[in-house]
Amino acid sequence: MDDSRRNKYGQSSDEIPEPPPPTRQYFEPQQPAPFPPLPPAMGYPPAMGYPPGYRNGYDQQHYQQGPPPSPDMYYAPPHCPHQDPGPPSSFAILTTMMLFVFFTFIVGLVLMFLIARPKFPIFHVETLAVTNFSVANDDFTSAWEINLVVENRNFGANVHFDRIQSFIYFNTDDLLASSHFDHPTKDVTVKANEKGTIDIKLSTADYKQSVPAPGKRVMEEMRNIRETGVVPFSLRAFAWSQIETGLFYTETKHIQSRIICEDLKVHFEGDTGNGKLNGKSKDCVVDL
Questions:
Q1: Compositional bias of type Low complexity: which residue ranges (predicted)?
Q2: Does pLDDT of 49 surpass 90?
Q3: Is 10 inside a domain boundary?
Q4: Does 195 reside within a domain?
Q5: For the domain that residue 269 is a member of, what is the CATH number?
Q6: Of the candidate ranges 9-23, 93-107, 174-188, the one whose mean pLDDT is the lowest
């Protein structure tokens, strides 16, 4: 036998056994490994307690849970012992007195300012009635009754009228009659924040000697305007008055003023000599 066909173990090729045929191996699929458990949620750690079935050694018969607490226990205010603040200090009493004196002084100043600076009252003609109005040739007659309202706007000050002298004009410049009241027919005193009335009566029959008769031009103009049914008049008056002021004592101020009420249009009734003021009252201007 040829030595070249021997291997390193001294075996010839005829003596070497043939290897068995390969076999097929089948592997069953394996299930994937389960995911690891999630970590516990962040927050407070789980409450510690006893394991189930553990007994702490106390007899349950001797320890029983009482009734649930009343809801009022959760809302009841805590009990605090009453503490007596004691009498106020002298500093607190002095501060209170100083504040009282200060506010009293301020109120007194306000009252003194309102009373010591009085305002003169305002006037307006409430009613005006004309009777026996006649313009014939060179003769002129008429009578006027005027209701003058006085409004006192003062706080704590009364107004007293001593004398009133009034004049009636045709239009604004032509004097027709006048009256002289050294003392009014009644005591005219208007209290604070109130209204009063002054009755004024004028007549050409009573004062022809003191007031000259109107000229021919004025009478002719009045006659022509009278035919239209509306005649304009004006009232002017001088008033001597006293204003009584004072909070703790009475102080009297004497004031002389001039009252001007213009454009007093009187509507006459047909051909009669009687007429009255048309429309609402007319305000007057006061000149001190």
A1: 44-54
A2: no
A3: no
A4: yes
A5: 2.60.40
A6: 9-23
Q: How far apart are CA 133 and CA 182, in angstroms?
A: 27
How many residues make up the chain in this entry?
A: 288
Number of domains observed in the structure of the chain: 1
Host domain of residue 216: 122-287
d(CA 175, CA 211): 8
Q: What is the largest CA-CA distance in the chain?
A: 198
In 98-229 the beta strands, taken as DSSP E runs, fall at 122-136, 139-151, 158-170, 174-181, 189-190, 195-203
What is the C-alpha to C-alpha distance for residues 191 and 172, in angstroms, rounded to an integer? 32
Per-residue pLDDT at 33? 57
Q: Which two tokens stand for residue 21?
A: 């045929």
C-alpha span between 75 and 79 (Å, rounded):
12
Question: Which range among 2-11, 49-58, 78-87, 125-134 has the greatest average pLDDT?
Answer: 125-134
